[in-house]
Design a protein that fits this description.
about 210 residues; alpha/beta; Aconitase, domain 4; seven-stranded mixed sheet; 9 helices; 7 strands
Length: about 210
């Protein structure tokens, strides 16, 4: 998993509340192991039933095609625990989601796959949205995980955020659950040696008949 430290990008925004995992990645894209999940991201919001692009949807606009930060609303990622929803966001190019709240399982899947989910207060969320709408062209922000701060294009602080320390450390170091466990590899090896020694010590000797 790649490390997350500082990310600078224009911000795409989809502010509908209660967007569920089936809306994020429709189930039709789960039937084929070779499906393009990035293409399937928000498929029914991005395209008509006959496959025509809905040009005024944010992700269909060329200026947001390479955005790595997505501003969302409340209870984003609710519904099933479909991990494909996170994979689809990641395949499209998003590394950071900023919202009012996230469904618990969805947030957990974000951490496990290296996406940073940031929860803001309504005031900070509104202030950030106001900033990204302050110009006729998309503006960039920077997300600094080390300092837990979001700044504007002039490096002026917009707001601060909180991430649980364990998840923050895992993202900064690029560790998934297995990588986190392997940080204690020497302790694990020592425990195995001791356990093996105790087992062989208490084992009854086998005598030939």
């Amino acid at each position: 998993m790649k490390k997350f430290n500082t990310l600078t990008s224009v911000v795409a925004s989809i502010l509908d509340n209660d967007l569920n995992t089936d809306q994020i990645i429709p189930s039709v894209y789960l039937k084929d192991v070779n499906a393009d999940l990035g293409f399937g991201l928000f498929a029914y919001l991005r395209r008509t039933p006959d496959g025509q692009s809905i040009s005024d949807f944010v992700l269909e606009k060329p200026e947001f095609a390479r955005s790595k930060i997505l501003l969302v609303g409340d209870n984003f990622g609710c519904g099933s625990s479909r991990e494909h929803a996170v994979w689809a966001l990641q395949e499209f190019g998003f590394d950071c989601l900023i919202g009012l709240s996230f469904a618990d399982l969805f947030m957990e899947n974000c951490y496990k796959n290296g996406i940073l989910p940031i929860t803001l207060s309504s005031n900070d969320h509104h202030g950030l949205y106001k900033y990204i709408c302050s110009d006729a062209v998309p503006v960039s922000i920077s997300v600094d995980l080390e300092g837990c701060v979001i700044t504007d294009a002039n490096e002026i602080e917009i707001c601060r955020f909180h991430i649980p320390q364990t998840q923050r450390m895992m993202l900064l170091e690029g560790l998934d659950d297995i990588g986190l466990t392997l940080k204690d590899e020497s302790l694990i090896n020592n425990w195995e040696k001791e356990a093996l020694h105790k087992h062989s010590f208490f084992q009854s000797p086998i005598h030939p008949l």
